[in-house]
Design a protein that fits this description.
- The chain contains 20 helices and no strands.
- The chain is mostly helical and 382 residues long.
- Among the domains are: 48 residues, Arc Repressor Mutant, subunit A (Orthogonal Bundle), CATH 1.10.10.60; 199 residues, Tetracycline Repressor, domain 2 (Orthogonal Bundle).
- Helix 5 runs parallel beside helix 8 and helix 11 packs across helix 16.
- The radius of gyration is 22 Å and the shape is flat.
- The N and C termini lie far apart (59 Å).
Amino acid sequence: MNTTPADTNGKIVASAISLFSKRWYSSVSVAEICREAGVSNGIFYRYFLNKESLIRHILEDVITRIGIALEGVQGKTSVERLGTMASILVAFAAEQKERVIVFREGQYRFFEFEHRLAELYRRTLSKALGRSVGMPEYLFAIGGIRFAGVRSALYGSHISLPALGDMLANGIFPGLAWDSEKVFGITVTPPPLSLEENARERLLRSGKRLFGERGFHEVNIHEITDAADLSVGSFYKYFPGKEAFYSELIDVAGRQVRHFITANLSSGLNRLEREMQGIYLFGIFLSIDRWCYNIVREGEFVVPDKAREYYAAFERGYLKLGTDGLNAAKLESDPDHESTALQFLLGISHYYGIELLFDGFGRGSRAVVEGIGTYLSRGLQE
Protein backbone atom coordinates (compact mmCIF):
# COMPACT_ATOMS: atom_id res chain seq x y z
CA MET A 1 0.00 0.00 0.00
CA ASN A 2 1.48 3.33 -1.09
CA THR A 3 1.93 6.08 1.48
CA THR A 4 0.68 9.46 0.32
CA PRO A 5 2.15 12.83 1.34
CA ALA A 6 -0.98 13.44 3.39
CA ASP A 7 -0.37 10.17 5.27
CA THR A 8 3.22 11.15 6.07
CA ASN A 9 2.22 14.64 7.11
CA GLY A 10 -0.48 13.17 9.35
CA LYS A 11 2.01 10.80 10.99
CA ILE A 12 4.41 13.64 11.78
CA VAL A 13 1.64 15.82 13.19
CA ALA A 14 0.17 12.99 15.27
CA SER A 15 3.63 12.16 16.64
CA ALA A 16 4.27 15.78 17.57
CA ILE A 17 0.88 16.16 19.28
CA SER A 18 1.52 13.02 21.31
CA LEU A 19 4.99 14.15 22.41
CA PHE A 20 4.15 17.83 22.97
CA SER A 21 1.17 16.86 25.12
CA LYS A 22 3.38 14.80 27.43
CA ARG A 23 6.41 17.09 27.64
CA TRP A 24 7.20 20.77 27.26
CA TYR A 25 7.73 21.85 23.64
CA SER A 26 11.34 22.89 24.20
CA SER A 27 12.31 19.42 25.46
CA VAL A 28 11.10 17.56 22.35
CA SER A 29 13.48 17.24 19.40
CA VAL A 30 12.74 16.81 15.70
CA ALA A 31 14.58 13.47 15.85
CA GLU A 32 12.18 12.21 18.55
CA ILE A 33 9.16 13.32 16.53
CA CYS A 34 10.50 11.46 13.50
CA ARG A 35 11.24 8.28 15.46
CA GLU A 36 7.71 8.31 16.89
CA ALA A 37 6.28 8.86 13.40
CA GLY A 38 8.47 6.22 11.77
CA VAL A 39 10.02 8.62 9.25
CA SER A 40 13.52 9.94 8.65
CA ASN A 41 14.69 13.36 9.71
CA GLY A 42 15.10 14.28 6.06
CA ILE A 43 11.45 13.48 5.36
CA PHE A 44 10.40 15.84 8.17
CA TYR A 45 11.95 18.84 6.40
CA ARG A 46 10.00 18.15 3.23
CA TYR A 47 6.85 19.07 5.17
CA PHE A 48 7.96 21.53 7.83
CA LEU A 49 10.67 24.17 7.91
CA ASN A 50 11.48 23.44 11.56
CA LYS A 51 9.88 22.46 14.88
CA GLU A 52 8.32 25.88 15.33
CA SER A 53 6.56 25.70 11.96
CA LEU A 54 5.17 22.32 13.01
CA ILE A 55 3.67 23.52 16.29
CA ARG A 56 2.28 26.58 14.53
CA HIS A 57 0.58 24.23 12.09
CA ILE A 58 -0.93 22.32 15.02
CA LEU A 59 -2.13 25.50 16.74
CA GLU A 60 -3.73 26.66 13.50
CA ASP A 61 -5.50 23.34 13.17
CA VAL A 62 -6.83 23.52 16.75
CA ILE A 63 -8.37 26.93 16.06
CA THR A 64 -9.95 25.58 12.87
CA ARG A 65 -11.38 22.57 14.73
CA ILE A 66 -12.83 24.75 17.49
CA GLY A 67 -14.33 27.07 14.90
CA ILE A 68 -16.04 24.16 13.16
CA ALA A 69 -17.35 22.85 16.48
CA LEU A 70 -18.74 26.26 17.41
CA GLU A 71 -20.77 26.36 14.22
CA GLY A 72 -23.06 23.99 16.11
CA VAL A 73 -24.14 26.69 18.59
CA GLN A 74 -27.92 26.92 18.29
CA GLY A 75 -31.08 27.80 20.18
CA LYS A 76 -34.08 30.09 19.94
CA THR A 77 -33.01 32.25 22.89
CA SER A 78 -29.70 33.64 24.11
CA VAL A 79 -29.93 31.36 27.15
CA GLU A 80 -30.25 28.28 24.94
CA ARG A 81 -27.38 29.43 22.71
CA LEU A 82 -25.15 30.06 25.74
CA GLY A 83 -25.92 26.57 27.01
CA THR A 84 -25.04 24.87 23.72
CA MET A 85 -21.85 26.93 23.46
CA ALA A 86 -20.77 25.73 26.90
CA SER A 87 -21.63 22.12 26.02
CA ILE A 88 -19.61 22.29 22.80
CA LEU A 89 -16.50 23.71 24.47
CA VAL A 90 -16.60 21.25 27.37
CA ALA A 91 -17.07 18.36 24.93
CA PHE A 92 -14.18 19.57 22.76
CA ALA A 93 -11.84 19.63 25.77
CA ALA A 94 -12.91 16.10 26.74
CA GLU A 95 -12.58 14.68 23.22
CA GLN A 96 -9.39 16.50 22.17
CA LYS A 97 -7.32 16.36 25.35
CA GLU A 98 -3.92 16.15 23.66
CA ARG A 99 -4.64 19.03 21.29
CA VAL A 100 -5.95 21.13 24.18
CA ILE A 101 -2.75 20.51 26.15
CA VAL A 102 -0.60 21.47 23.16
CA PHE A 103 -2.64 24.62 22.63
CA ARG A 104 -2.20 25.58 26.29
CA GLU A 105 1.56 25.35 25.72
CA GLY A 106 1.23 27.30 22.50
CA GLN A 107 -0.84 30.10 24.02
CA TYR A 108 2.06 30.77 26.38
CA ARG A 109 4.80 30.68 23.74
CA PHE A 110 2.98 32.08 20.71
CA PHE A 111 0.39 34.47 22.08
CA GLU A 112 -0.91 35.49 18.67
CA PHE A 113 -2.76 32.16 18.48
CA GLU A 114 -4.40 32.76 21.85
CA HIS A 115 -5.39 36.21 20.62
CA ARG A 116 -6.94 34.73 17.47
CA LEU A 117 -8.81 32.08 19.46
CA ALA A 118 -10.09 34.75 21.84
CA GLU A 119 -11.43 36.70 18.85
CA LEU A 120 -13.18 33.56 17.59
CA TYR A 121 -14.78 33.09 21.00
CA ARG A 122 -15.84 36.72 21.17
CA ARG A 123 -17.50 36.50 17.75
CA THR A 124 -19.32 33.35 18.80
CA LEU A 125 -20.41 34.90 22.09
CA SER A 126 -21.58 38.01 20.28
CA LYS A 127 -23.63 35.90 17.88
CA ALA A 128 -25.13 33.91 20.77
CA LEU A 129 -26.15 37.09 22.59
CA GLY A 130 -27.18 39.05 19.52
CA ARG A 131 -25.00 42.01 20.49
CA SER A 132 -21.38 43.08 20.50
CA VAL A 133 -19.28 41.99 23.47
CA GLY A 134 -16.16 43.35 25.10
CA MET A 135 -13.42 42.06 27.37
CA PRO A 136 -15.61 41.73 30.51
CA GLU A 137 -18.13 39.47 28.72
CA TYR A 138 -15.33 37.44 27.18
CA LEU A 139 -13.53 36.88 30.49
CA PHE A 140 -16.73 36.13 32.39
CA ALA A 141 -18.19 33.67 29.88
CA ILE A 142 -15.31 32.17 27.94
CA GLY A 143 -12.75 32.31 30.76
CA GLY A 144 -15.17 30.47 33.01
CA ILE A 145 -16.15 27.84 30.44
CA ARG A 146 -12.64 27.20 29.14
CA PHE A 147 -11.08 26.70 32.55
CA ALA A 148 -13.92 24.54 33.83
CA GLY A 149 -13.86 22.39 30.69
CA VAL A 150 -10.09 21.93 30.75
CA ARG A 151 -10.01 21.14 34.47
CA SER A 152 -12.76 18.59 33.99
CA ALA A 153 -11.09 16.95 30.99
CA LEU A 154 -7.52 16.89 32.28
CA TYR A 155 -7.89 16.66 36.05
CA GLY A 156 -11.34 15.18 36.63
CA SER A 157 -12.84 18.26 38.30
CA HIS A 158 -16.57 17.89 38.79
CA ILE A 159 -18.59 20.27 36.67
CA SER A 160 -22.25 20.43 35.71
CA LEU A 161 -23.35 21.58 32.26
CA PRO A 162 -26.73 22.80 33.58
CA ALA A 163 -24.87 24.79 36.23
CA LEU A 164 -22.56 26.33 33.61
CA GLY A 165 -25.56 27.37 31.53
CA ASP A 166 -27.30 28.86 34.54
CA MET A 167 -24.21 30.81 35.62
CA LEU A 168 -23.74 32.22 32.14
CA ALA A 169 -27.37 33.33 31.99
CA ASN A 170 -27.99 34.43 35.59
CA GLY A 171 -24.60 34.95 37.23
CA ILE A 172 -22.85 33.20 40.09
CA PHE A 173 -23.92 35.56 42.87
CA PRO A 174 -27.42 36.45 41.66
CA GLY A 175 -28.85 39.61 43.14
CA LEU A 176 -25.77 40.68 45.09
CA ALA A 177 -24.88 44.36 44.73
CA TRP A 178 -21.42 45.86 44.97
CA ASP A 179 -20.03 49.20 46.10
CA SER A 180 -17.39 50.57 43.73
CA GLU A 181 -15.64 52.59 46.41
CA LYS A 182 -15.38 49.57 48.72
CA VAL A 183 -13.95 47.41 45.94
CA PHE A 184 -11.50 49.85 44.33
CA GLY A 185 -10.95 52.61 46.89
CA ILE A 186 -8.08 50.81 48.57
CA THR A 187 -4.47 51.60 49.41
CA VAL A 188 -2.34 48.66 48.33
CA THR A 189 0.63 47.53 50.39
CA PRO A 190 3.27 46.14 48.00
CA PRO A 191 5.10 42.87 48.66
CA PRO A 192 7.90 43.32 51.24
CA LEU A 193 11.45 43.79 50.02
CA SER A 194 14.17 41.67 51.58
CA LEU A 195 17.19 43.91 52.22
CA GLU A 196 19.36 41.14 53.63
CA GLU A 197 18.83 38.09 51.45
CA ASN A 198 20.51 34.83 52.34
CA ALA A 199 22.08 32.65 49.63
CA ARG A 200 18.93 30.59 49.11
CA GLU A 201 16.79 33.68 48.63
CA ARG A 202 19.30 35.15 46.16
CA LEU A 203 19.22 31.97 44.10
CA LEU A 204 15.42 31.98 44.02
CA ARG A 205 15.26 35.64 43.04
CA SER A 206 17.80 35.17 40.23
CA GLY A 207 16.14 31.99 39.02
CA LYS A 208 12.70 33.59 38.91
CA ARG A 209 13.95 36.41 36.70
CA LEU A 210 15.93 34.16 34.35
CA PHE A 211 13.23 31.51 33.98
CA GLY A 212 10.57 34.18 33.63
CA GLU A 213 12.47 35.93 30.86
CA ARG A 214 13.75 32.92 28.90
CA GLY A 215 12.02 29.73 30.04
CA PHE A 216 13.05 26.60 31.91
CA HIS A 217 15.01 24.83 29.17
CA GLU A 218 16.94 27.92 28.09
CA VAL A 219 18.51 28.53 31.50
CA ASN A 220 21.21 26.44 33.18
CA ILE A 221 22.33 26.23 36.79
CA HIS A 222 25.60 28.08 36.10
CA GLU A 223 23.64 31.10 34.87
CA ILE A 224 21.48 31.09 37.98
CA THR A 225 24.46 30.97 40.33
CA ASP A 226 26.36 33.59 38.32
CA ALA A 227 23.36 35.94 38.51
CA ALA A 228 23.20 35.38 42.28
CA ASP A 229 26.99 35.83 42.57
CA LEU A 230 27.32 32.40 44.14
CA SER A 231 29.10 29.14 43.36
CA VAL A 232 27.44 26.11 41.78
CA GLY A 233 28.15 24.29 45.02
CA SER A 234 25.90 26.77 46.81
CA PHE A 235 23.03 25.79 44.52
CA TYR A 236 23.37 22.09 45.36
CA LYS A 237 23.57 22.89 49.05
CA TYR A 238 19.89 23.89 48.88
CA PHE A 239 18.46 22.10 45.82
CA PRO A 240 19.08 18.61 44.39
CA GLY A 241 18.55 19.78 40.80
CA LYS A 242 16.94 22.24 38.40
CA GLU A 243 13.46 20.70 38.51
CA ALA A 244 13.39 20.74 42.31
CA PHE A 245 14.52 24.36 42.19
CA TYR A 246 11.73 25.20 39.73
CA SER A 247 9.20 23.43 41.94
CA GLU A 248 10.27 25.62 44.83
CA LEU A 249 9.81 28.72 42.66
CA ILE A 250 6.19 27.69 42.00
CA ASP A 251 5.61 27.16 45.73
CA VAL A 252 7.05 30.59 46.45
CA ALA A 253 4.99 32.20 43.67
CA GLY A 254 1.78 30.70 45.01
CA ARG A 255 2.50 31.84 48.56
CA GLN A 256 3.41 35.33 47.41
CA VAL A 257 0.25 35.79 45.32
CA ARG A 258 -2.05 34.44 48.03
CA HIS A 259 -0.36 36.49 50.75
CA PHE A 260 -0.52 39.69 48.70
CA ILE A 261 -4.23 39.28 47.99
CA THR A 262 -5.09 38.25 51.55
CA ALA A 263 -3.04 41.07 53.09
CA ASN A 264 -4.74 43.69 50.92
CA LEU A 265 -8.34 42.44 50.94
CA SER A 266 -10.68 44.84 52.71
CA SER A 267 -12.85 43.74 55.58
CA GLY A 268 -16.63 44.02 55.46
CA LEU A 269 -17.01 42.98 51.81
CA ASN A 270 -19.83 40.77 50.61
CA ARG A 271 -18.94 37.68 48.57
CA LEU A 272 -19.22 39.46 45.21
CA GLU A 273 -17.18 42.46 46.34
CA ARG A 274 -14.53 40.12 47.72
CA GLU A 275 -14.31 38.29 44.39
CA MET A 276 -14.01 41.52 42.43
CA GLN A 277 -11.37 42.95 44.73
CA GLY A 278 -9.45 39.68 44.60
CA ILE A 279 -9.34 39.79 40.78
CA TYR A 280 -8.30 43.44 40.87
CA LEU A 281 -5.52 42.72 43.38
CA PHE A 282 -4.33 39.75 41.33
CA GLY A 283 -3.85 42.10 38.39
CA ILE A 284 -1.94 44.58 40.54
CA PHE A 285 0.35 41.81 41.76
CA LEU A 286 1.09 40.75 38.18
CA SER A 287 1.97 44.33 37.29
CA ILE A 288 4.51 44.26 40.13
CA ASP A 289 5.88 40.75 39.51
CA ARG A 290 5.07 39.43 36.04
CA TRP A 291 7.64 36.63 36.25
CA CYS A 292 5.51 34.90 38.87
CA TYR A 293 2.81 33.99 36.37
CA ASN A 294 5.29 33.00 33.66
CA ILE A 295 6.87 30.56 36.12
CA VAL A 296 3.52 28.97 36.98
CA ARG A 297 2.33 28.76 33.37
CA GLU A 298 5.48 27.00 32.19
CA GLY A 299 5.41 24.89 35.32
CA GLU A 300 2.22 23.26 34.04
CA PHE A 301 4.43 21.44 31.53
CA VAL A 302 7.78 21.23 33.33
CA VAL A 303 6.59 20.09 36.78
CA PRO A 304 2.85 19.48 36.29
CA ASP A 305 2.20 18.01 39.74
CA LYS A 306 3.58 21.13 41.40
CA ALA A 307 1.56 23.41 39.11
CA ARG A 308 -1.60 21.46 39.95
CA GLU A 309 -0.88 22.04 43.62
CA TYR A 310 -0.62 25.78 42.90
CA TYR A 311 -4.21 25.80 41.62
CA ALA A 312 -5.35 23.35 44.30
CA ALA A 313 -4.22 25.83 46.96
CA PHE A 314 -6.48 28.48 45.42
CA GLU A 315 -9.31 25.95 45.28
CA ARG A 316 -8.91 25.29 49.00
CA GLY A 317 -9.07 29.01 49.62
CA TYR A 318 -12.35 29.25 47.72
CA LEU A 319 -13.78 26.28 49.58
CA LYS A 320 -13.01 27.94 52.92
CA LEU A 321 -15.32 30.78 51.90
CA GLY A 322 -18.21 28.31 51.74
CA THR A 323 -21.31 28.86 49.67
CA ASP A 324 -22.04 32.41 50.77
CA GLY A 325 -23.76 34.30 47.94
CA LEU A 326 -24.36 31.26 45.74
CA ASN A 327 -27.85 30.27 44.64
CA ALA A 328 -29.16 28.11 47.51
CA ALA A 329 -31.82 26.40 45.39
CA LYS A 330 -29.25 25.42 42.74
CA LEU A 331 -26.85 24.13 45.38
CA GLU A 332 -29.56 21.90 46.78
CA SER A 333 -30.69 20.51 43.43
CA ASP A 334 -27.26 20.08 41.79
CA PRO A 335 -24.42 18.47 43.81
CA ASP A 336 -21.83 19.82 41.34
CA HIS A 337 -23.06 23.42 41.39
CA GLU A 338 -20.49 24.59 43.95
CA SER A 339 -17.52 22.87 42.28
CA THR A 340 -18.61 24.28 38.91
CA ALA A 341 -18.78 27.79 40.37
CA LEU A 342 -15.30 27.32 41.87
CA GLN A 343 -13.75 26.35 38.51
CA PHE A 344 -15.68 29.12 36.76
CA LEU A 345 -14.32 31.77 39.14
CA LEU A 346 -10.77 30.44 38.90
CA GLY A 347 -11.10 30.59 35.12
CA ILE A 348 -12.07 34.25 35.13
CA SER A 349 -8.96 35.14 37.15
CA HIS A 350 -6.74 32.83 35.08
CA TYR A 351 -7.67 34.38 31.75
CA TYR A 352 -7.74 37.87 33.25
CA GLY A 353 -4.09 37.30 34.14
CA ILE A 354 -3.23 36.02 30.67
CA GLU A 355 -4.87 38.97 28.92
CA LEU A 356 -3.36 41.47 31.33
CA LEU A 357 0.18 40.10 30.96
CA PHE A 358 0.30 39.45 27.24
CA ASP A 359 -2.15 41.94 25.77
CA GLY A 360 -2.72 44.51 28.51
CA PHE A 361 -5.76 46.58 29.42
CA GLY A 362 -3.86 49.85 29.81
CA ARG A 363 -5.77 51.91 32.31
CA GLY A 364 -8.92 49.92 31.73
CA SER A 365 -8.36 47.14 34.28
CA ARG A 366 -10.82 48.67 36.74
CA ALA A 367 -13.49 48.94 34.05
CA VAL A 368 -12.91 45.29 33.11
CA VAL A 369 -13.34 44.14 36.72
CA GLU A 370 -16.45 46.31 37.07
CA GLY A 371 -17.91 44.62 34.00
CA ILE A 372 -17.05 41.18 35.35
CA GLY A 373 -18.76 42.10 38.61
CA THR A 374 -21.92 43.07 36.78
CA TYR A 375 -22.10 39.69 35.04
CA LEU A 376 -21.22 37.78 38.22
CA SER A 377 -24.30 39.42 39.73
CA ARG A 378 -26.84 39.11 36.93
CA GLY A 379 -25.41 36.98 34.12
CA LEU A 380 -25.37 37.74 30.41
CA GLN A 381 -29.03 37.51 29.52
CA GLU A 382 -30.73 40.87 29.06
